[in-house]
Protein 1
Amino acid sequence: MDELSSRFLTAFNVIEDWLQHTLDAPEGQTFASLLSQTEKLNADVRRHSPELKRLAKLRNLIAHNHSHTKPLAVPTVMSVERIEAIGKQFLSPPMLFTLAAKPVELCQPSDPLGCCVRKMHDGVFSQLPIYDGKKCCGLLTAETIARWLATFFVGDGKGIVDEQSVAEVMQHQEDTVNYTFMPRTATVVEALAMFDRFLHRGKRLEAILISQNGHQTESPLGIVTVYDIPKLNNAING
């Protein structure tokens, strides 16, 4: 067997073994069955499923349909590199935490807005998680601040930024469900799927906060915002 075919079959077998291990499936299940079951549980598998189905047809031609002199198909370099890349991503998926901003700047409901605005300006970001004690209770965004400021256009607004508290400004928030938590073990693909899930519900996910176990009562270890989506896509497509 030629080198490209050997590399292709080795990489394909790695993926098939990984699917079987992920499902703890018994021996003898077809690749199509393993793929169909796993894509319901894993966003990364779901993303690659159409391509893997096409590559499975090529695998069948290489492995099972030889003539007396040579196989009916030989994979291209691109096909080999692609199946190897998919296998590598399944076994070692890019982790969301590695791309998150750290440490996470926080604010409290009682904090003066001026302090928060300065944090946003100095850190060049537009979201601040709000913690009441040890529990996250909201996300202060530049959009919410702008909506709040609009209510003062009738006056001169002098000193209002320093005088108002975060809690008062948050009364002008349009959507209170604009953030979520994910555990430190979350992958980039899972995060992108979360952004999509909010979008399909007609919501905008402003930020994902990363904590040890993904609980709202845990301190944030990192933050990924809607503006990081291009960076997340690059991490899985690059």
Protein 2
Amino acid sequence: MQDVAAMRHCRCGFLSVLPLFFLILIIGGCAPKERAPIAILHTPEHHVVTGMKLLETGKPLDAEREFNLAKELDPEYSPAFRGLAVVLAYKGDFKSAFDTMSHAQKLARSKQEEALAYVGFMRLYTRQKDEGWLEHVQENFERARKTLEDVPHMADPYLCMGLAYKEACRFSDAAHAFRKALEINKTLTDRAEQQLKLVQKIERAMPGTPIGKKVALLEKVKRVDVAALFIHELKLDAIYKKIRPGLPFKPPVKGAPIPVDVGDHPLGADVQAVVDLGVKGLGVFPDGNFAPNEFVTRASYAIMISDIIATIADDPSLATKYRGHVSPFADVRNDVPCFNAIMVCTTRGIIEPKRRVRQDIFDPGGPVSGADALLAIRRLKEDLGIF
């Protein structure tokens, strides 16, 4: 009898947990299943493509991880070593970079891989900029071009040659190379077209001094860069010296203190010259510093340019000319301090607004590229008849 009672107890216990068991099965069946890894992406080719994209976005360490993964999957995969060589160049280890690129060349399994190794050497020499670097780039360009005689769709050598010419400040040659790259391979349109527009803008700006050409390549200019451009490209000190005897409303700032943070700066003399000229927006801060490495915004650059226009034109009324006017820009109110300066520069075509579908914007907090800074100076000269 005890056995029968025990069996009944077990049976009841089993029946009581049975609904719970089915509930677990139902829930488990509705739960999302774990996705299987996509093996097709775990290939040397995919990791190298990913690594190259990371390099272009300025992430060499992340790119190095991808190239190493490619090398682990195929220890003799030429593109993996080519990518690692470029990463080593980013780190400044050029000896290892050139050795690794030579290894990539030896491992090349096709004409295309061999040509890309030559392009890799072009990149290394362009980054190193050692004596005779441009000649070495040109030599490897010719080797790549000849290797690709049977692969006419590859434009990489021309794109890399254009970048080298740009770094060498040979802007017309760079533009020619970028156009050739676009003709050969439309898949490079975004990058080649962007570079072509940049060098064309620099050509229009016509930088006439070595420092102007160097600043032209900067994506964002700093206060010290603008000071150098005003002195070397615009020659503002000479202009003010010539016209200021007749400008009683804005005399030069004589005996201005030397900013404490530019005493040993290579461009310290240019900073001091600009401080002495009293350009609005480019002076010494209350704490005695100039902040040479602070990036210049589009609004602050407009303030500087409009102040120079008012000084040279001997027209102090320009400082309030547009007060109360309706702002044509969606992102600039007419009551902000920089509004008048922005209007002075845009109405004269010295600084261009940015186009939107419905309304223009100015992007007052946006950076100023070296090419844009130079182009504004060029237009300023034309506007004021300064040659």
